[in-house]
Structure formats: C-alpha cells, structure tokens
Amino acid sequence: MPRPNRHHHVQSDIIMTTGSDVFEEAEEGFLDESGRFLDRRAALVSALVHDQVKDPSKIRHNMLFSEDLW
How far apart are CA 61 and CA 18, in angstroms? Predict the structure, then answer.
C-alpha cells in the first residue's frame, strides 16, 4: 500500500477482504527490492546499509518499523 500506510493498515485491509485474521501469530517484516521477505531485524540491517533509515538514533528493539523509514 502507498505511503503513509503502515503494517496495521495492510493487515486491516486483508482482514476486511478475507474475513480471516491470519496475523495473530505471523512474523512481520518487509520485502526487499527483489521481493525477498526480510524479518524486522534483517530489514533493519538492509535499510541501514542502503541509508534508508530517517533517524538511526531512534531505532527500537534492534528492529525496523515502517515509521523508521518515513
């Protein structure tokens, strides 16, 4: 979904569309430029390497959150 949507926006849309809450136990993360899934820790490493984190001093729990990007 386009900015400024966050993970919870995507999840809500999927739940409303499918009627199923598949996210209770699901691992959250990001897709990289090649479409590979990265968990929040791996995504943080990738985002830092590519200078995509807006303020590295505000990283929480050594994981990436969409708010860290924009």
Answer: 31
Of the candidates 22, 23, 42, the residue with the CA atom closest to the CA atom of residue 31: 42
Residue 44 backbone phi and psi in degrees, to 5: -65, -45
Q: Does the CA dihedral 69-42-2-60 come out positive or negative? A: negative
Terminal CA-CA length for the chain: 14
Which one is predicted more confidently, 57 or 6?
57
> What sections of 19-68 are H helices per DSSP?
40-49
Q: Give this prediction's pTM.
A: 0.71
Tell me the one-letter amino acid at 44.
Answer: L
pLDDT in tens, 24-47: 777 889 999 999 999 999 999 999
Degrees, nearest 5: CA angle 33-38-54:
70
